[in-house]
Amino acid sequence: MLTVDHAAFLGVVLAASLIQGASGFGFGMVAMAVLPFVMDSKEAVVSVAAVTPLLCARLLWGLRRHARLRPVLPVIAGAVLVGLPLGMSVYAVADTWVFKQIIGLAVATGCALLWLFGGARTRPLPAWLRWPVGVVSGLLTGTCNVGGPPLILYMWTQPLEKAVANARLQTVFTSTTVARLGMLLAAPLVLGAARFPAVTAPVFWRALTAVPVIVVGGWVGLHVFHRTSAQVLRRLAYAFVIVMGLVLFVRTHLAGRPDGPEPGATRPTTVGRIDASTRRAHP
Question: What's the chain's average pLDDT?
Fold first, then answer.
């Protein structure tokens, strides 16, 4: 049965897919800017992490003639070996109040940097920066699925053809998102389910139901809005994500740290509350 929360999730995914198809702007950035408003923030991270590898792999397949692994191996190594584990640690230890503010700042700052410097003509950054760029991108991916901006900014400075640059980006995105998903699946078994309460079968099932929505949304965005300037759409998406990220940060911060669980999060059952009250009444 389709619940209100599930319908809201699918609606956000559809909007993010439309924007991705129409402008090429990151699906994860748009989804993570909105989903914390309609569902538990850590479940939102797991849901987006579950479907992003499919989207990246589909884009990489279309660019496979231009894809090469060797030039981006340092980036992938920095992300997988250092950045992702650090991001997973932040994801595991940060409480909901702090975590929602991290998401808000990450999406707003990332989009602002892309907007300000994405079209700027700069000298190519040195090759040795590939490793630290991978670490930062992996850290943001492991924390809240928004590792795109540092990698995109670095790749845009390189003297590469557009198709080659996009192929390298999708090679890194596919590799890191697959590794991120594997770490999420393994984390409850290795580190304990208590640290990763959002990594559950129902959350993954809900995410998988969004796959057809992503396919349809991407196709519609690509073919229906193709006459609209991609640059204009991208700027509108930047503005939207920046505003949503700042609203998420400010609203969460001003609300203060809540005493109870986040709306949408798992709550104690009625039986558990009755048992607890019985134990207090009868020591």
Answer: 84
Burial per residue of 142-172, b for 16 or more beta-carbon CB atoms within 10 angstroms, e otherwise: bbbbbbbbbbbbbbbbeebeeebbbbbbbbb
| Contact by Cβ (8 Å): 14, 213 | yes
Task: Give the three-state DSSP class for 177.
Answer: helix
* H or E segment and range at residue 15: helix 4-23
| 267, pLDDT greater than 80 | no
Q: What is the pTM of this model?
A: 0.83
- The answer to whether residues 242 and 113 touch, using CB atoms and an 8 Å cutoff, is no
Question: What are the tens digits of pLDDT across the range 55-84?
Answer: 888 888 888 899 899 999 999 999 999 999
Cα–Cα distance, 232 to 218 (Å, whole number): 18
Domain ranges within the chain, ordered by starting residue: 4-276
- Counted residue by residue, the chain has a size of 283
d(CA 256, CA 262): 12
